[in-house]
Amino acid sequence: MPTFIIFKNQQVVESIRGANPPKLQEAVKKLAAEADSDSAGGFGTAGGTGSWSAVAIPRGYQDVTDQVDAKGLDLLNSSSECGTARTLFGSSKPASLDAGKGKGKSENDGDGGCDWVESDTDEQLMLFIPFQSTLKVHTLQITSLPPTSSEEDDDESPMRPKTIHIYSNRANVLGFDEAEGLQATQSITLNPKDWDEKTGTAKIELRFVKFQNVHSLVLFVFDGEGESEKVRIDRIRIVGETGEKRDQGKLEKVGDHE
Predict the structure, then answer these.
(1) What is the tens place of the pLDDT at every residue in 119-143?
(2) Rounded to an integer, what distance in angstroms lies between the CA atom of residue 174 and that of residue 127?
C-alpha cells in the first residue's frame, strides 16, 4: 500500500496511507497556505509596511516590493565583490546614506560585504524580477549612491544608471545580445536632475497602460552616467497595485511583448 509522508522542518507532520486523492489535495493546499502565511520567497510584509522608501508613494498606490519572488531573481554581470540581486530589494535603508556615499557595508554574509550591486566586466546589468502575484506597476524607484569624484578616481568610481530598457512578462532573464534585438516595453533615459540629491533616488514613472498585468520585469541597464566601466545600484522599489496571487507551480503562457 502506498504511503505519503509529509515533512516540515525535518519533522513528520502528516502520513497518508493508500491512494486517497482528496486527502492528498487537502494536505497540499494546507502546506501552500502555510507557505503564503510565512511570506516564503518574498520581502517584508504585505503592502510594504516597514520597508524603506526614499520617495513619496503616489496617492492611490502602494509599495509592492514585497511581492518580488526572491527565489527567482537573476542578475547578470554583477561583481562578486558586491551585493546580490536580493540586496536591491532589501527592506533596510541603504547603509551609504548613513555612512556617506559609497562607504556603506552590508551586515549580511555572503553578499561581498557591500550594501549595493555593481556591474563587473562593463557598465551593463541585466536583472530579472519575478513576482508572487500579478501587479499593476506604476513607478520604479532606483537608488544609486556612488562615491563622489573626490573619494575615488573617476575612471574607477562606479556610475549611476543612465539608459534602462524595461521588458515585461518575460519567462526568464534575457541575454545581453538577445535584449538588444528586442523591442523594450519602455526605455528610460535618466538625467542628473532626475536624481534626488539627499537620497540618490530617481523616480521612474512608467506608461501605466503597458504595465497592467505584470508577473515579471527585466531591467536592462544599458549604460551609465559617465565614462567609468561600472554601474552601481543600491535599492529598487516597485510601486503599484497588487492583483491575483500567482500559482507558482502553474506554467503560464507568455503573451505578446510590446
Answers:
(1) 999 999 999 999 999 999 999 999 9
(2) 8
Q: How far apart are CA 7 and CA 151, in angstroms?
A: 53
Per the DSSP assignment, residues forming a β-bridge with 240 are: 62, 137
- The closest of 88, 248, 252 to 161, measured between CA atoms, is 88
State the Cα–Cα distance between residues 246 and 32, nearest whole angstrom. Answer: 12
Non-local CB neighbours of 184 within 8 Å, separated by 6+ positions: 165, 166, 167, 220
* 203 beta partners: 141
Classify each residue of 31-70 as buried b or exposed e, where b means 16 or more C-beta atoms within 10 Å of its C-beta. Answer: eeeeeeeeeebbbbeeebeebbbbeebeeeebbbbbbbbb
Q: Among residues 240, 214, 246, 217, which one has the least CA distance to residue 36?
A: 246
What does the radius of gyration of the chain's CA atoms come to, in whole angstroms?
Answer: 20
HEC sequence for 61-75: CEECHHHECHHHCEE
The C-alpha atoms of residue 46 and residue 236 are separated, in whole angstroms, by 17
82: DSSP letter: S
**Does pTM surpass 0.85?**
no
The CB density around residue 245, as the number of other CB atoms within 10 Å, is 13
Cell of 168: 515585461
The pLDDT score that the predictor gives to residue 47 is: 46
Identity of the amino acid at 178 = E
Contact present, 152 and 250 (Cβ < 8 Å):
no
Spatial distance between the Cα atoms of 191 and 179, rounded to a whole number of angstroms: 23
3-state secondary structure (DSSP) of residue 160: coil
The DSSP 8-state label assigned to residue 255 in this structure reads: -
